[in-house]
Amino acid sequence: MNLYTINRGVSKRLHIYFSNRSRKKMYHDKINNLVKEFKPKPLSNNQISEIKEYYASFGFNDVKTCWHRYCTHISGEFHKEYIPEDIFYNLIEPRLNMYKMHPALTDKNLLSRLFSNVKQPEIIIKNLNGCYYDGEDNRLIQIEEVINKCKKYSKLVIKPSIDSGGGKNVIVFALKGDKTDYNNLSIKDFLKLYDKNFSIQGFIRQNRQMNLLNPSSVNTLRIVSLLMDNEVDILTSVCRIGAIGGKIDNISQGGLACRISSNGLLSEKGYLKSGRSVLETGTEIKLKDFKIPNFNKIIKEVQSLHKQIPYFKLISWDLAIDDKGEIILIEYNVRSQEILGLQFFNGPLFGVHTDKILSSCDLNGKA
Predict the structure, then answer these.
(1) What does the pLDDT read at residue 2?
(2) How deeply is 297 buried, as exposed, middle or buried, from its count of CB atoms within 10 A (0-12, 13-18, 19+)?
(3) Domain boundaries defined on the chain
(4) Which DSSP state fits 186?
(5) pLDDT for the residue 71
């Protein structure tokens, strides 16, 4: 082994160490702000001891209990197995998922090739590294043809093809001629806002039952699956519902989220970003026992899809149901997956798998 190789190894370990410290501080600041805002009731001494003894049995000797406190406050249920975000993002997710495969394999412009056996939103235009492609036949095209194709539609969706989690920079826009309703920009000027690596998609006409929850947004399902021992287990399923008049369903955009039980029925309570619980949607539809169409079929589809991409053992899938009752794969998420909200919907993230997941963690920070 030469000096160059040794230096590379040291540099890599230092990079991991300082990156983990930075992320740890970020998530500590986040939960501390939530605790400060919501002022949850402190955990009892017995509960704190139970958490620390449990995590210490896996080698975690300095576990923070603020995440347990917050989840217990929101959900009304105490579980020692709640997963703190600093442990999840620094140790668990990198252990389960091959991050180096993430940028290419989650590019929305490539999903139709990766998952050709499931229906996806109609792709009108792709932009890959600044090059425009026809979404129908993958021809390289010029901006003039891009504009002409967009003009044929009354409503479209544009989103970054790489890293658009949480609805970030996803815009539903209407068109009249060569003008959009986004600040009255022309199509050409509107596209300049995205520069490169984005996708223009047809607007999904959603299932009539899902439309009842909120007609202005496509209301989607977030399903989290775990590939373990050659089997795919569904950890949690959530329905995300837009706010009245809102075009995006994400909870970060004013929507709400509600747990889906294994039989496809919504739970009694949904939650807003603030953590406040609600019993009905903005359209006054009661959440309790609302039936998600074709739910068993959706679960089987997710299990089948996950087995096609074993580079990632933990995946958060976003799906919709169209007006024909067909399942639409919108995207899948494998890095920086949201877990805090899921745990006060459905209890500890990994459920019966928690002990095995924590046992597999490398406390030296290697993934």
Answers:
(1) 60
(2) middle
(3) 3-97, 103-117+206-334, 123-202
(4) B
(5) 96
Q: Give the model confidence (pLDDT) of 151-160 as tens digits.
A: 999 999 999 9
Task: State the pLDDT at residue 166.
Answer: 62
> What is the residue type of 80?
K
Q: In 83-216, where do the E strands start and end?
A: 123-128, 131-134, 140-141, 155-160, 171-176, 179-180, 198-202
Rounded to whole angstroms, the Cα distance separating 132 from 117 reads: 25
Least Cα distance to 256 among 283, 225, 293, 234 occurs for: 283
Using alpha carbons only, give the angle 203, 205, 209 rounded to the nearest 5 degrees: 145
Sheet holding 266-271, edge to edge: 277-278, 266-271, 256-260, 231-241, 220-228, 314-321, 327-333
- DSSP label of 47: H
Q: 202 near 156, Cβ under 8 Å?
A: yes
Residues 281 and 287: beta-carbon distance below 8 Å: yes
CA-closest candidate to residue 251, choices 159, 340, 315? 340
Q: Which pTM does this prediction carry? A: 0.91
In 3D, which of 312, 270, 311 has the Cα closest to residue 289?
Answer: 270
* Per-residue pLDDT at 367: 35
When pLDDT is averaged across residues 314-322 and rounded to a whole number, the result is 98
Architecture of the CATH domain 103-117+206-334: 2-Layer Sandwich (3.30)
